[in-house]
Sequence to fold (303 residues):
Amino acid sequence: MSDKRGLIILRGGDRSLHKSWLAGPEARTWSLHISYYGKNEQPDTCGQSDVTWSNDGGRSKYAGLAECLKNNDFDLERYDYIAIPDDDILTSTKNWNRGFELCRMYGLGAAQLANHIDSFFTQDITLARPNVRLRYVTRIESQIPIFRTDVFKRLAEYFPKEGNLWGMDYVAPYVLRDEPRSMAILDEAVGLHTRAHGVGAMYAKHRAEKTDMFAIQSQFLQQTGIPEVPAEIVGALDLNGQEIASLWPLKRRRVRAKLQQMWRERRGIVSIAHNDSKQLKTLRRFPGMPDLPLLSLDAARSA
Fold:
């Protein structure tokens, strides 16, 4: 077992939820660096050791990460796995610890924390399943990803490229194309994605300019020679680490999640509020979060 730590490089603004990651009594098995793009003098590091930051401006996620790597002297060889999550993820030290642990246990090249059932999501394949440790997949999403360090270095070559925002989801499958079952959704390590897809200043700018994001993605993939890969499950392990011969469809949990998503869309709900104490019962089941204030499902509505 590797004695190296994990590293999380977060592109974080002033509404970042990384405080939740640092809460709880567990000792962290990972370091956190905040690539800050907010308007304050500095981000909130919660007064913890092994949390560093740099001011890398208001660029897109990957352009900002490229600047962060260029401007900071990271010794990536200190780390065996590197995560680059979004800043609208609610999770905990315990979940991140388990995520890195599972990556090491199974020698994964790329993985992602599973989405809590109440998350905003784009593909229901990412929703956490009960009684499952992990699911091997053909592709992961970019909201809560973890990469083996050698894979991360290959991905970083694409960070400065134009038009890579959506296309980056296909880079890891391309890099790992000769490593079967090297990507997984980690059902034992969960995060709550609190903001709807396509929300934010950058997306608003694209809409105002009537930019076709799918056309930009296609151009990026064509220029790099990277093929599109559908997200599919190719295997699964149960909580004992045994192979699951037949994975049952998600059924009621998927229906519930989709109905909730439709309800939010119809009412213009674009984010889950995290600063009041009403309507708590749904998220009382959030795994690994007993020491955090519970979220409310009161929501921020679009203007």
User: Anything to note?
Assistant: The CA atoms of residues 23 and 90 lie 11 Å apart.
